[in-house]
Amino acid sequence: MASEAEIKIGQVDDVQELHRAGLETVPDRYIRDGDDRPGGDNVCALAHIPVIDVGELTRDDELNKLRLACEEWGFFQVVNHGIEDELLDEMEKLAREFFMLPLEEKEKYPMAPGGIQGYGHAFVFSEDQKLDWCNMLALGVEPAFIRQPKLWPTTPAKFKETLEKYSVEIRGLCRRLLAHIAETLGLAPGTFGDLFGEAVQAVRMNFYPPCPRPELVLGLSAHSDGSAVTVLQQDMSCAGLQVIKDGAWVPVHPIPHALVINLGDSLEVLTNGRYRSVEHRAVTNSEQDRLSVVTFYAPAYDVELGPLPEFVTDEAPCRYRRFNHGEYSRHYVTRRLEGKKTLEFAKINQITTAAPEELCSCK
Ligand code: OGA
Ligand code: NI
Questions:
Q1: Which Gene3D superfamilies does the UniProt entry name for this protein (predicted)?
Q2: 361 vs 253: which has the higher pLDDT
Q3: What is the model's pLDDT at position 362?
C-alpha cells in the first residue's frame, strides 16, 4: 500500500460547507454510478430489523430471538440495555455541537490523507474514488496506546469527559452482548471475552448534512464492519441507515434511546459463517441532517483469528484461514469501503490446491 505521503486523494470538499453554500447540484465526485444509487426498487421500506430487550436475555425466548436476529439479520436494535438515556442524549448533543463548529475549528483535528483518526474523510485513497456525503470524526479509544490525544476535541468543553464515560458504558454493553451471543451459539458466555484479550475500541461520529440530490449520492458506501460487534447510536431525525436482507435494502427506523447492534467480520470468521457480518450503507435526504455515533469493538491486535473448531464440520467445511487480527485491521483501513470485499482477505479459496488442513486453524 502507498505510504501516507504518496496517497493523493484530490479535492475533497467538506460536505457541510457545500450544504452551507446552498448548492443546488452536487460535485461529480459524489455522483454514484447507476447500480450504486440509493433509489430504485430494491429498497424494502416495510421490513424492520428485530428489537431485543437486553434485560430479558436471561430468558430462553428472548435469547432465541437474539439467535434468530444474528442468524437472519446480523443486525438488531437493543432496548433496556442499561445505558442511561441522559448519557446517550449528552453524547449526541456534544457530537452535534462539534460538527456545528466553524470548519477552522474542526480542522484543528485533521485526519491525514489515508489516515483513520481525526476529522475528515476516512477510506479515501485515490483521486478518482467516489466520495461519501458525510463528515466524520474518528477516534481510537482503547487500549490507551491507540489514542491520539491531540485529535480529541477540546471544544465543546465536556466532549472528552463525556466520550470517556460513554465509552466505558458501551464497552460494558459489548461485553454483555458478546456473552449472550456466545450463549446463542452454545458456547460458554466468556468465550469471546477470553479470546479477545484487551479489546480494541474506536468511535466514529458521522454527520450527514442534507443533500440537494439524495437520489444520486450515498452518505456512506456499502460495507461490512471490521469489528466483532458495532454499536450505533442514531438521532431521531430520519431512517438513513440501510441493511441488506435477501438482496434488498431495509431502512433502520430510529427508536428513542435504542442502540443498533451489528455483527462484524470477526464474528463471521470465528463462527465459520454461521453468523455473518452484514452489508449496510447510509443514505441522505434533502430536508434533514443526520448524526450517528458508532463504536467498533474488536479483538486485540495480537489475537489470531480463525473459525472455532465447533463450527467446522463435514457439512460446514472451513471457510476462513487463520490470520492475525491486527493485520486484518490494517488491511481493512487501507482500502476503500466496498461491500464485503475486505473479508476476501480471510476466505479460503475453494479452488486452492493446498490441503484444507494446511489453511484451517482448527485441524
Ligand atoms: C459505520 C456505519 C452507518 C450510519 O460508521 O460503520 O455503518 O448510519 N455507519 O452512520
Ligand atoms: Ni458500518
A1: B-lactam Antibiotic, Isopenicillin N Synthase, Chain (2.60.120.330)
A2: 253
A3: 53
* 246: CB partners within 8 A, 6+ apart: none
Is the CB of 298 within 6 Å of ligand 1?
no
For residue 225, the ligand 1 atom closest to its alpha carbon is: 6
Report which of 114, 115, 98 is spatially closest to residue 106, judged by C-alpha positions.
Answer: 98
Cα gap 83→68, rounded to integer Å = 24
Report pLDDT for 361.
54
Distance (Å) from CA 184 to ligand 1 centroid? 25
Mean per-residue pLDDT for 263-271?
Answer: 98
C-alpha of residue 160 to centroid of ligand 1, in Å: 21
How many angstroms separate the CA atoms of 223 and 277, rounded? 9
Helices 159-184 and 60-72: crossing angle in degrees, nearest 10, is: 100
Taking alpha carbons only, the member of 323, 300, 342 closest to residue 1 is 342
Delineate the domains of the chain, giving CATH numbers in brackets.
Answer: 21-348 (2.60.120.330)
323-344 as b/e: b if 16+ CB within 10 A: bebbebbebbbeebbeebebbe
Q: For position 5, what pLDDT does the model report?
A: 53
Q: Report the nearest-CA residue for atom 1 of ligand 1.
A: 294
Q: Is the CB of 290 under 6 A from ligand 1?
A: no
206 lines ligand 1 (CB under 6 A): yes
Going from the Cα of 65 to the center of ligand 2, the distance in angstroms, rounded, reads 23
Average pLDDT over residues 161-176: 98
| Ligand 1 pocket test, candidate residues 232, 261, 277, 288, most atoms within 8 A of CB | 232
The pTM of the whole model exceeds 0.90 = yes
What band does 298 get if pLDDT is binned at 50, 70 and 90? Answer: very high
Confidence of residue 158 (pLDDT cuts 50, 70, 90): very high
Q: Cis (ω within 30 of 0) for the bond into 38?
A: no
